[in-house]
Amino acid sequence: MGKKLYFGFLISLVLAGITVIFTFGINPRNLSLVKLSRLDNLSDWAQLIDQRLAQEIQQSSMILLGAWPQSKISEDLVQAIQTDLQSKSWDPKNGFQEGANFSLQDDWQALKSKVESNLFTEKILVQSWLPWTHAALKENPAAWIQDVDVQNKVLFISIAPLNDKESVQCDTQSQDHAGFARLGCEIQQKSKFYARKIRAAGFWGVLEQTGKNDYLILIQEVGKF
Q1: CA-CA distance, 31 to 206, in Å (whole number)?
Q2: What is the DSSP string of 109-122?
Q3: Per-residue pLDDT tens listing for the chain (225 residues)
Q4: End-to-end distance of the chain based on CA atoms, in angstroms?
Q5: Are 186 and 26 in contact (CB under 8 A)?
Q6: With 0-12 CB in 10 A as exposed, 13-18 as middle and 19+ as buried, what is 158?
Q7: Greatest CA span in the chain, whole angstroms?
Q8: Looking at the whole model, is its pTM more than 0.90?
Q9: Cα separation of 213 and 131, whole Å?
Q10: In angstroms, rounded to a whole number, what is the distance separating the alpha carbons of residues 119 and 175?
């Protein structure tokens, strides 16, 4: 009788875990590159991210950098990363050139032509919004670019806020072809986990690898306790 109850309990735990994965879209293969950390400002975070992804950045012909919509801290970190990238004293052929930036909304057709024809004569930095820069989500430009057989490496960096239920919604009832709602649910789940570990003022964040060339940064500013 005791063994039956024990195995029944184990089966319940397994089923619960499977339910969470399918409901919230949590990817068990996500790799933590920067564990939950506190830094003094977003410039420090930008430098840390650029250092941690230095090899990937050097090897990439294009970087898609996206912020969560209506999240100021996400937008500010995008700008900080861009500033840090463009300040690097790289060889001109490997660094970001003046005027090489694209808007995913305004320049999509031109960018698409470059990707399809492999016409990369300079590094391209594309600023946009989630979900369009998160290749793990289907039916968006990032997923399309990842599926194209190009010789040049494309790097996807997406930024979203931690502990911001107003901006990050978890709506499992609506149609979610692009997986945006599932990503919101995943971020909310992670926020609950990390909230218990935040104990001081500052800028808290994590960096995870969510796909082959796909990265997700979660960031939060915490005031004085």
Answers
A1: 11
A2: HHHHHHHHHT--SS
A3: 555 544 444 444 334 443 333 333 344 457 899 999 999 999 999 999 999 999 998 888 778 888 998 899 999 999 999 888 877 654 434 444 444 455 555 566 666 776 666 656 667 777 778 877 887 776 666 777 776 655 567 888 999 999 888 888 887 776 665 567 788 888 999 999 998 899 899 999 999 998 888 999 999 999 865
A4: 51
A5: yes
A6: buried
A7: 72
A8: no
A9: 15
A10: 36
> Using CB atoms within 10 A of its CB, is residue 113 exposed (0-12), middle (13-18) or buried (19+)?
exposed
Burial (CB count <10 Å: 0-12, 13-18, 19+), residue 159? buried
**Burial class of residue 90 (count of CB atoms within 10 Å of its CB; 0-12, 13-18, 19+):** middle
List the structure tokens of 38.
């506190």
Overall residue count recorded for the chain in this entry: 225
- Residue 207 parent element (H or E): strand 202-209
Distances (CA, A) of 8 to 2, 13, 15, 17, 20: 10, 9, 11, 14, 18
Please say whether the beta carbons of 208 and 216 come within 8 A: yes
Strand partners, 39: 203
Which amino acid would we find at residue 148?
V
Amino acid at 176: D
Smallest CA-to-CA distance from 188 within 160, 165, 217, 212 is with 165
